[in-house]
Design brief:
10 strands, D-Maltodextrin-Binding Protein, domain 2, single chain, 2 domains, 10-stranded mixed sheet, alpha/beta, 13 helices, about 20% strand, about 40% helix, about 325 residues
């Protein structure tokens, strides 16, 4: 089954389950539903979130549902407001939100934000048309560049990367649209480049690469990458292997961790059971078979790069499993 088929099936299932979740009003009933904020339908969060929701749901006890959202910032804010029980976030955004640093400096932070699991590395993609001749991020000055929507972690990272290459946002022609919209505009010749932070392969980029237009990924390496890692320790060295996307060469880049977060107020036993279900043998097989990044959602990776405290329910499970001391 390809990624688009997975997304369509998830959309059908969630169309039924989500309205049920949104009609819940009492706290006793709310414990029966567990919403997971993901991202846009063309990204990686959405299909992975759908697979996890299916896997951790307990018949008759808990219905987990995946919601399409604007991404990391929207998700941590949604958890803080109670609009959703959990959500996916880039590790940098989660850390900033909980500690009141980075983009949350001088703004109300979210001290109750807690970690359920570190999931997989999110690769930073900078996509251009191969025919554009653009070889470096430094060549994006004056170009039409999509940075993703406000509320996304991609927008935050795109701004940091542009600054590392001494490019001001006013020196490009920015657009604040989702990756699938950006891919459509690039296909039509109305966009020169777009940023996307997510697990590779990403649906929107894979579809664009297969459409015959020919794309390339710009590298993030050398002095600029090292400067970013010196100032922002959540960036890790990463690469996209050749042929991850049709006819696209290998490229060196950076990544951040994709994390599943919740509130400290979430019920301890519920989070314990969800975490336990995530790493059951059947779930691990389903995740590995369902998406390329599913293979990396492992017990070993779950406790890596934790910039915020674990929820007590998740911590209890990880101590029992021997991955936390």
């Amino acid at each position: 089954m390809n990624l688009n088929q997975v997304a369509r099936r998830l959309a059908i299932g969630m169309a039924v389950a989500l309205p049920m979740a949104l009609t819940v009003s009492t706290s006793a009933q709310a414990q029966s539903f567990f919403r997971i904020g993901t991202g846009g339908t063309a990204g990686t969060y959405y299909p992975v979130g759908g697979m996890i929701a299916n896997a951790v749901s307990i018949p008759g006890k808990l219905i987990a549902t995946a919601q399409a959202t604007n991404g990391s910032v929207a998700n941590v804010n949604g958890v803080a407001s109670g609009a959703m029980e959990s959500g996916f976030s880039q590790s940098d955004v989660a850390t900033w939100a909980q500690k009141g640093t980075g983009i949350y400096e001088g703004k109300p932070n979210i001290p109750d934000l807690r970690l359920i699991a570190n999931l997989y590395p999110e690769t930073i993609h900078v996509v251009v048309k191969k025919s554009s001749g653009i070889k470096s991020i430094s060549e994006l000055k004056g170009k039409r560049v999509a940075l993703d929507e406000p509320g996304s972690g991609t927008l935050v990272n795109a701004r940091l990367i542009l600054a590392a290459y001494n490019i001001k946002e006013s020196e490009i022609r920015p657009e604040y649209i989702k990756p699938n919209q950006a891919a459509d505009k690039m296909k039509d010749g109305a966009l020169d480049a777009f940023f996307f932070v997510g697990g590779a392969p990403a649906g929107a980029i894979a579809e664009l690469a297969s459409s015959g237009g020919g794309i390339a990924l710009l590298p993030i390496e050398g002095a600029q990458a090292q400067a970013l890692r010196n100032t922002s320790s959540f960036f890790a060295i990463d690469s996209v292997p050749a042929a991850t996307y049709k006819d696209v060469d290998a490229v060196n880049t950076l990544s951040v961790g994709a994390q599943w977060v919740t509130s400290a107020k979430a019920d301890t036993e519920t989070i314990y059971q969800i975490t336990k279900a995530l790493y059951s043998e059947s779930t691990q097989k389903a995740l590995a078979a369902g998406h390329a990044k599913g293979k990396l959602i492992t017990l070993k990776n779950a406790v890596q790069g934790a910039g915020i405290p674990f929820h007590p329910g998740a911590e209890k499970y990880y101590r029992e499993a021997g991955v936390l001391k």
